[in-house]
Amino acid sequence: MKYQTVTRTIDTLEIVQNAILRSTVDNFSQRKSREQLVDEHKRLDISCDKNKYVVHNINKQENLTLNIQLRISISNLKVDNVPTGRFLLCRVISKFVKLFSLLALVEDPEGNVERLALYNWTNFPKEGQSNIKPIDQLFLPIGTLLVIKNISYEVATSNITIIRSNNPDDVIVVDHNNKLFDDVKWSTNEKKVEIKNANDFRRCGNDYFASSNYITAIDKYSNGIKLEPQNVTLLNNRAEAYLRLYQFHNAFKDTEIALKYDPNNLKAAYRKGKALCGLKHYKDATNILQNLYQRMKGNTSIKQILEHTEMLSYENKNGKYDYLRIVDEFYERSKIKKDNKVDLVEGKGRGWIAKCDIPECTLLMVSKAFKVVFSNEAFGTMITNNKGACSCAEELTTCITRKLFEEPYYCPEVYQLYDGLNLSRDEKNKIIGKSTIHIEFIICALVHNIFGLNYEKFNLNNEITGLGLWILPSFFNHACIDENTYSFHLGDLLFVRTNRPISKGEELVINYRDATFSYEERLSYLEYINVDCQCRMCKLERSESQEIKLRMAQLLKAYHESIYPKVSKSHSVELSHIKELENIIAELRNLRKEHPDLGFNTIKLSKTLAFAYLEIGNNKKALSILKEAYDLYKSVRVSEIRIIIFDIIMINSKLKLFEEAKKWFDIILKIVVEPIMGKLEDDKPEWRKEALLLTEKILPKINSIAETLNIV
Ligand SMILES: C[S@@+](CC[C@H](N)C(=O)[O-])C[C@H]1O[C@@H](n2cnc3c(N)ncnc32)[C@H](O)[C@@H]1O
Fold first, then answer.
1. Parallel, antiparallel or unpaired: strands 71-72 and 87-92
2. Which of 148, 71, 82, 158 shows the shortest CA–CA distance to 117?
3. pLDDT value of residue 377
4. Which of 484, 503, 530 is the last residue of a domain?
5. Could you give the number of structural domains in the chain?
6. Which InterPro entries has this protein been placed in (predicted)?
7. What ipTM did this prediction achieve?
8. Of 471, 502, 530, which residue sits at a domain end?
9. For 192-245, what is each residue's pLDDT tens digit?
10. Which CATH number belongs to the domain containing residue 160 in this structure?
11. Mean pLDDT of 15-38
């Protein structure tokens, strides 16, 4: 399956490969032991591609002639180095799995083990083709002796090392009777630790734990627990390994079982406290840790974790940003959540419905992200263009797939989301019930539910972008205009507030794409995610005659091609251009004269007109054009409004109308901070100071304007 983002298609297999490899490997900087690699490879098998392929013919050369001196050992391979003229003698020690390449583990005579990736071995079968094969045990089975020429040693996806071979003709299967390698001694090496009982598994797990290989340690402890389910030491050890992997839910479960068998076990209680803290159940964590501290007065590590938990609890209550007002709002949130619910909405699936009257600017929810990816994490740098967004989508899909691999109990949370797959209820229930990875579902759910980080609405430099998945906010449906809520991201928290009073029974809707995007732009996105929008704007644009549409398109084309290039450049503005632009704006408005408040297609043109007047020195006219645009569209809250306000502030200061500039500054300040802080009251003089403390962090540009205006 291909996952289409706006700019690129992503192969699902690539995503699964990425996710699985990352769940099974750590950092490549250290060579892995045979056992680690074997364990990791076993995990790969879970989700490898089970399709049948046309496989390249296997190259067998009975009369192989090679200079044995040119054999290279795995331990001598260097990353990004092609050992020209050398060959690798190895034997297969695992079955092959099909990811991008065919991947298996091989060992060399010295006993070194590494992943071998064979590229270009498979093709999708064409219709009627008969020589198709599954990639199974029979494909280069375990024990097969190989000579591989022209290899390279690379760091592949997600920082794992591979021995790469691109050409199937370079891979030669060596007959076991071949005399050429008679002198080569195979250190049939695996010093098998004999494991007989739970204690052996514990020791073995501890060794892996000590080398920070927590995944394998967990496997070993689990084997021991299978033999002795009531072994509290094993349960405690596994809980600690889970904690190291941030798998707090699993850690919590183990400590619960351990405490059931040994209620006074201090280690289990301590780890339960840590797990609860990781799960953000700060109150329960604090209770347990306080109790423990009473029993073990003077224990500094308990004291430290207790203090840390109390601090996190405090921060959490304060919205993580030391924000006292949010404490109150959390109370409000619990009330609102009780009073709103997800219900069926005609023609839209599920949606949030207000179960009581809700005042303007009420915090509806603060939701912690299921997962967020910032563009710098996906791409190495902050990138705000489509390429960045696409990488974020890829990275987010990989991270979520990986999270579900590691913690499958989260699957139902994701699988309950709208997916656009049109599955029957039965089919869907089956997927939800199974808690296994269903990549097609994950991808489709993401396409329909991801949020773009909207810092750019506030941050005029467009510095931070990213994508994330929030579960509860995913139930908000869309409206291009007249939405009654808006969302705001801070870190991985998403705040949703009402932007006007809402009556009981009304649907709570947000805006996925606002009306400053043209109808065509909105449509191409909304159709892609199955939204058939019935907002006033979409209805109007659908009902306009072809003739009107054509005329609007002509006017906008004339603006973009002939007016904008002249008027937007300093020193090239002439009165005749201004006149022409005014005529275009007037005609565009006239074409929508029945709906003056829906003439968003003139916003950008009005801004250009204001700029042109500024250029010819008519500042007052520029100001009045911008104010008119503000008045017209402020109630619809399109994002462009913020930029218009910034322009108004700038012109007012230029005209030395500082009082007026301050008035507009307060408007923009509130637009920026009220989504987080809630409604600010003018009669409380300290509001501005409080607001500026926040903008200092989230949008320092505002503070420099405040300084220029002498407001602070
Ligand atoms: C983020 S989900 C919203 C919750 C969704 N309705 C559900 O049942 O889970 C997005 C999906 O909801 C539906 N949707 C959202 N807004 C809509 C609208 N204005 N009209 C029709 N369908 C809408 C579309 O199917 C869209 O892909």
1. parallel
2. 148
3. 66
4. 530
5. 3
6. Gramillin-biosynth_MTr, SET_dom, SET_dom_sf, TPR-like_helical_dom_sf, TPR_rpt
7. 0.99
8. 530
9. 556 779 998 998 888 878 766 677 788 889 999 999 999 999 999 999 998 887
10. 2.40.50.140
11. 59
Q: Take atom 15 of ligand 1 and give the residue whose Cα is closest.
A: 477
**452 Cβ below 6 A of ligand 1:** no
pTM of the model: 0.62
Check whether residue 71 and residue 142 sit in a common domain. Answer: yes
| pLDDT tens readout for residues 171-181 | 998 887 777 88
Q: Is 347 in the pocket of ligand 1 (CB under 6 A)?
A: yes
Ligand 1 pocket check: which of 344, 413, 416, 418 to mutate, most ligand atoms within 8 Å of Cβ? 418
Angle at 246 between CA 243 and CA 247, to 5 degrees: 80
**Are 285 and 416 within one domain?**
no
Least Cα distance to 305 among 263, 276, 326 occurs for 276
Decide whether any atom of ligand 1 lies within 6 Å of the 532 Cβ. Answer: yes
| Interaxial angle between packed helices 640-654 and 619-633, expressed in degrees from 0 to 180 and rounded to the nearest 10 | 150
Q: CB of 474 closer than 6 A to ligand 1?
A: yes
Closest to 645 measured CA to CA, from 685, 607, 682, 599: 607
In a domain, 181, yes or no: no
Q: What is the CA(338)–ligand 1 centre distance, in A?
A: 22
Q: Is 448 in the pocket of ligand 1 (CB under 6 A)?
A: yes
Structural domain contains residue 564: no
How far is it, in rounded angstroms, from Cα 200 to Cα 497? Answer: 56
What SS3 state is found at 414? helix
Give the pLDDT confidence score for residue 258 in this predicted structure. 97
Would you list the DSSP string of 194-210? P--SHHHHHHHHHHHHH
Q: Measured from the CB, is residue 83 less than 6 Å from ligand 1? A: no
> Across residues 90-96, what is the average pLDDT?
89
Return the higher-pLDDT residue of 479 and 65. 479
pLDDT tens digits, 346-405? 889 999 998 888 888 888 888 888 888 877 665 543 334 444 556 678 888 888 988 888
H/E stretch holding 134 reads: strand 132-134
CB of 533 shorter than 6 A to ligand 1: yes
Mean per-residue pLDDT over the chain, rounded: 82
Which range of residues forms the domain containing residue 283? Answer: 198-318
In a domain, 565, yes or no: no
